[in-house]
Write a structure and sequence with these properties.
This protein has 2 helices and 3 strands. By secondary structure, it is of the alpha+beta class. The chain is elongated and about 45 Å long.
């Protein structure tokens, strides 16, 4: 099993609301290969699980591109829910 993932936002960066969760659920349905989720630490992630037995270079590239594209779209969608850090 090969798992490719990106943490899109850490728990302390995200203002979780019902609207955000609904938006993430809808986006989860829109993507073919990727999963959108919240891990046990409360971080928002995008990931793809693949079987190594059937993975070739083309499949690897497609999975990486899917994770990157989903991450870009989710990052844009969650901007209103990002907590600005105090610097």
């Amino acid at each position: 099993m090969a798992v490719m993932f990106v943490v899109v936002a850490e728990k302390n960066q995200l203002r979780v609301t019902p609207e955000l969760m609904r938006s993430l659920l809808l986006m989860n349905d829109d993507f073919d290969r990727v999963k959108i989720g919240i891990d046990k630490n409360g971080d928002l992630f995008v990931r793809v699980d693949s079987t190594v037995r059937v993975m070739d270079l083309e499949e690897l590239k497609a999975n990486i591109e899917q994770v990157a594209a989903a991450t870009d779209e989710i990052t844009k969608a969650i901007k209103p829910y990002i907590i600005q850090s105090k610097q």
